[in-house]
Structure formats: structure tokens, C-alpha cells
Amino acid sequence: MLRGKQVERVEAGSIAAELKIGPGDEIIAIDDMEPLDILDWRLAESGEELMLTVRHTDGELAVYEIEKDYDEPLGIVFSLPTLDCLRSCQNRCIFCFIDQMPEAMRETLYIKDDDYRLSFLSGSYITLTNLQEEDIQRIAALNLAPLYVSVHTTNPCLRKKIMNHSEAGEILPLLTRLAQAGITFQTQVVLCPGLNDGQELERTIEDLYSLYPAVKSLAVVPVGLTGHRNGLYPLVPVNRTQADFVLAQISHWQQKCLAEQGTRFVFAADELFVTAGKDIPAAAYYEDYLQLENGVGLVRLLLNDWHTWLNRQPITAGKQISATVITGESAAKYLQPMIESLNNIDGVELTLVSVENHFFGGHVTVTGLLTYQDIIKKLSREKVKERLYLPAVILKEGREHFLDGYTINDLASALETEIRVVENLSQFLADLFETEMR
After folding, report:
1. Are residues 121 and 244 both part of a single domain?
2. Are 118 and 150 found together in one domain?
3. Cys staple from 178: which of 14, 36, 183, 212, with CB 3.0 to 4.6 Å?
4. Alpha-carbon distance values, 168 to 124, 202, 317 (Å)
């Protein structure tokens, strides 16, 4: 008997929405076949003529004959992102962020995935330690590229130690084999002082660069440490001197790679520049912004948006605009001058509130890990203006929930104020001025 694949939601304006497929419905078959996982579904979904069998929530079994453009998605988002069981992480990395999280958060936040299918489809980083031979052959046969790989080090013994996994050491031979099959990669190193920095980082960059262009880029990201590390491996954060050394090391390699291949290849996360007290590089440094998910170039994009805005900044708002803006500590130094400049516009009164992260504690300062509890604690001591702006990165994608389970409505009710969620600086400025000036 075929098992149904449950629909979580349907994209607005999609083919599935037109067919009135909705949450809770089950996809029984596509072209008379049950998709065994998300890759089967994506391959079948890409066709121009489809037959889709759906069991609706009322029990009705419906068959839809669909004609569409090649590769046009149906707009169905499944309850399980892989359709079958998620491949869990078998490593016990000494820096794993999930192991450093507080208790009593949503159960799904403690799931450690390490699934090559999600790496290909959504850019999540994987370690490749749980691949079986059939997985390797499938990756090659379906040309699942690029894959996003957490390398951390190419030293076999050190990688086993860092990842606490006996099979973790042979990453370079596996990357080489997949590269020879035509697979490409974006890679990352989580930098842990005293372990995979210095000469070990030098070795890793050299080894990965030897696989260029199969390895397209490498991001070096400082380890993130919370205040919940009791009983875990004794790690220390990257300090200013270390950050400065790493940036010099990366710069040397960038010059070599540019001269030889026309790309910088290895990139430093924004946090390294912040820690070292150095200016964020110009846009050219980031080339195609291949490593945004690793925080490589996010600040530069913010600054670019701001400089574009300055060319058309009005002298007056045309009406009174009063709002409070939330941010994390690390972004505040870049946002504060912008807020001050906006406040020079006649009619604008903005307050930037930098929120300390007590929930995670430790050295966590990024905006994306702020919680309701820390925001409400901070704002209880501030006079919140008519409107409160929240960066979308604080919330679960497509949802209204903070990491600690509270919702936007909870915050709006507690503060008795209107809340608007914005994706980026451009959207914030458009909402602040254009929407209000209509």
C-alpha cells in the first residue's frame, strides 16, 4: 500500500494552490509512482505533463492531470523536508552549536541533520561522514552539485578528533572522488583556536585549493560559543590578535589564488573583521557572494544598500515617523550611524535598541539568535515608539515564532505596539518612507 506524503503548506499562486491542494492533504503518487524521497519528487515534478494523485483531508482521492512548463514547481511544501527519514548527524563535534543550546526549547531545534539531499536542495552544510557507497553513486549519477561541505580540517587525525567520528578522517579522498565525477562544492572551516588554525589552516586551504575548480570556495568562520558549555571540550573564542593573523593568512592565499585562477577562493567571515577591528572590505572582495550563509559579505551588502539610499535620501519625511528598531550587538555598530543619519531628516524619530543575548550567553552577539525573552527584557526598560521593527532573521522562516517559542503576537501584546518584520535594510527604508508617505 502506498504511503501518503503530507503537505505542510502550499505556495500562494502556485499550481497546487489553483488545484486547491492544502495543508494536511497527502500526495499519494506522481505519474503512478510513490516518490521515495525529495529527490524522486523533484525529478518527477520537473516534467511538463504530470498525473498527481492526492488524498484530501476529507478522505476524497483525486487525480489531477497537469500540463506546465518544464522545471516549474507545483508549489507543494512537505511536512518532512526529505519525505522520508532525515539523515541525522553521526558526529559529536567539539564545537557543535546544538550541544551548547539551553534546555526547554522547541524539540525540532535539537535535531542534528547531516543530509546530502538538503545540502543540494537548500545549501545546508554537511560533513559527508554518513555517506554509504550507494549515496556516493547516486550523488554522482544525479549530478547533485554544488554540495555544501563542512571540512574544518583536511588533517585526517585532527578531523577525527574535532568531529569525534572514526570515519571522519578521509574527507580529502572522498572530495577528490566526487570531484572526478563532476561534483562541485562550497566548503567551510569553523576555526577553533589552538586546534585547526595556524599551520593546520594553511594545510586545509592548500589541500582544498588543489581541488579547484571542483571546490569553488572556502569560508573561514570563527567558532561560536554560548554560555552553556558545561562538560564540553574547553574551547576559547577567536581574539583580536588571532583574528588579525587569520585575516593576514587568508589575504596571502587570496593574492595567490587571484594570480593563478582569477578568484580569491578563500574568504573570511565578517565576524573576523569585526573582531580584528578592521573595516569591512569593498564589494569586489566578495566576488559573487558565494558564502552569505556563513556570514561572508552580509555587512557589505548592508553598507551597499545604505550607500544607495544616501543618493536619494529626502530632506523631509513629509509626515511624522516614530519607530524603534531591534538589533543584536554585533550589527549595532553599523546600524547606529545609519539611524543617526535618518534622524536628521525632518519628521523622523528612530531609536535603535541593541539587545544583549542572555538566553544563549557566552559570546553570542548576532541578531539572528535573539529571543523573545531577551527582547522583552530589554524593551521593558526602554520607551518603545509607535512602531517596532524586527529583522526577519530573528524568526523561524515562514513563521512568526522566536527561537524560544514565543510569537510576534506575544510581543505585540506585551508591548502594546505595532510590529513590522523586515527582511533587509532596503525593505525597512521602503516601509518607513514610501509606505507611510502614500
Report:
1. yes
2. yes
3. 183
4. 18, 19, 58
**pLDDT of amino acid 149:** 98
Whether residues 169 and 239 fall in one domain:
yes
Q: Choose the final residue of a domain: 275, 295, 315.
A: 295
Global pTM value: 0.89
Residue 138 belongs to a domain: yes
| CATH number of the domain encompassing residue 53 | 2.30.42.10
| Structural domain range at position 371 | 304-437
Higher pLDDT, 3 or 295: 295
Q: Which of 295, 330, 348 is a domain's end point?
A: 295
Cα distance from N-terminal residue to C-terminal residue, the chain: 57
Residue 119 shares a structural domain with residue 195: yes
Same domain, 285 and 353: no
**Cα 168 from Cα 155, distance rounded (Å):** 10
Reference 382, options 324, 423, 311; nearest CA is 324
Q: pLDDT digits over 81-117, tens only? A: 898 888 889 999 999 999 998 887 777 778 888 999 9
Contacts of 27 (CB under 8 A, 6+ apart): 4, 5, 7, 35, 41, 52, 53, 54, 76, 78
Verify that 238 and 332 share a domain, yes or no: no
Say if residue 210's pLDDT is above 80. Answer: yes
How far is 172 from 421, CA to CA, in rounded Å?
43
Rounded Cα–Cα distance for residues 127 and 172 (Å): 12
Please, what is the average pLDDT of the chain?
A: 93
Residues 347 and 419 in one domain: yes
* pLDDT reported for residue 304: 95
The pLDDT assigned to 3 comes to 54
Range from 78-87, 272-281, 318-327 carrying the lowest mean pLDDT? 78-87
* Cα separation, 430 vs 432, whole angstroms: 5
Query: Where residue 104 sits, what CATH number does that domain have?
Result: 3.80.30
